[in-house]
Amino acid sequence: MICWDHIDTVLLDMDGTLLDLYFDNYFWMEFLPQRYAEAKHISLDDAKTQLFARFSEHRGTLNWYCLDFWRQETGLDIVAMKAEVKDLIGLRPNAITFLQKVRESGRKAVLITNAHRGSLDLKLEQIPMAPHFDGIFSSHDFGLPKEDPHLWSRLQAVMHYEPARTLLIDDSLAVLRSAKKAGIAHTLGVLQPDSQKQSMDTEEFIGLDCFSRIYPPSAQPDNH
């Protein structure tokens, strides 16, 4: 599935890749609409109709991922509400072991997420992944979503990775296509981002069902 001899850097998405997307899907599709309905004194169906229309309008843009934007749109404290259901945040199988093995093999592991810092900080507090990364970045740091191919050169200026020797693992086909356009040579899609939903079609990308299938080989000892 992967030729590790050709890879020095592993870029990893967070939600739906390292973490189970169930938390985010539940929050945006169920928890937020319920609270919005209560706040606006409307039915849950009306709340979903209003919110989902706005979601569609902004999907794939930086606003879609910006908790400050949705706070303004809804009048609700999105960060505080996410904290209320933080116990639903969970890892995908073998994610931490994979990160450990990437680092042990001498390669860099870098988190690059579209998540807003308010969500990123909450998740890193709940799931202590930070020590396993050489860098942690939100697309908001660069002013572009990962769907924009220019994001990758901005990240490259900070992390100094070589696109031809870089692997990206992500659950978004739009993001994977953006990275391909930017010259990132190795890509994997995630087959089942949300453990409560069916596997998805990763189309032109090889699909990954579990990190245990792609552990890198251990670094060879230096005998010199």
UniProtKB/TrEMBL annotation:
It comes from the Bacteria. Signal peptide: none annotated. The keyword Ribosomal protein does not apply. One of its GO terms (biological process) is DNA repair. Keywords: Metal-binding. InterPro entries: HAD-like_hydrolase_sf, HAD-like_sf, HAD-SF_hydro_IA, HAD_sf. GO terms for cellular component: cytosol. Pfam families: Hydrolase (PF00702). The keyword Metal-binding applies. GO terms for molecular function: metal ion binding; phosphoglycolate phosphatase activity. This is Haloacid dehalogenase.
